[in-house]
Amino acid sequence: MFYQVLKYVILGPLLRLIFRPRVEGLEHVPLQGPAIIAGNHLSFSDHFVMPVIVPRRVTFLAKAEYFTGPGLRGRLTAAFFRGIGQIPVDRSGGKAAQAALRSGLAVLRKGRVLGIYPEGTRSHDGRLYKGRTGVAALAMKAQVPVIPCAMIGTFEAQPAGRRLPRAMRITIRFGKPLEFSRFAGLDGEHAALRAVTDEIMYEILQLSGQEYVDEYANEAKARQQSQWGLVRRFR
User: Fold this and answer.
1) CB atoms < 10 A from the CB of 193, how many?
2) What does R_g of the chain's alpha carbons equal in angstroms?
């Protein structure tokens, strides 16, 4: 109920007013059955704008930090994300990654739509970064279609660090569903996982027109911060 009120009464009309989204390829999102929407991730606004456009409920695997903030603000944030059906995910790897995989599979086995950002985190500079293989593992294990999605303009509207978005027009572009039945039974093979992930990222790249970087976003960001630290140190 809370999700429906937010989508159709509160957030939906507000976001449509702020962003005036141009939507392309929405017919590629199936009206029933399990599916994964895999998109680029440029802004905090992405969590809300794309689900408002999709006629079905989209459940995201959201970083655990959204659910563990301190104080009243932290509790309100956690309640909000739970209310819109988001699932907390520990991104530390290892057993945490397996738990995230199980959570995603549970959503798909209920016949729902799962939203995921293969880059694992927001792009800090607007470029598209190397995808992590969790999206491939989910698609291959559940044998569900993957719909590539590109958010265009949300980085300019609300880059990392900006609390409120600028009012400007954005584009949301969906590609044709990708299916990976030819990889059935290979979800434990790294080469197959990498191939599927790269195919998904290529389709996102084609839709978004971003510059691609063959490096994980969090590693690129850490390296950049380290370089800036050295520059400041020797000034």
Assistant:
1) 21
2) 18
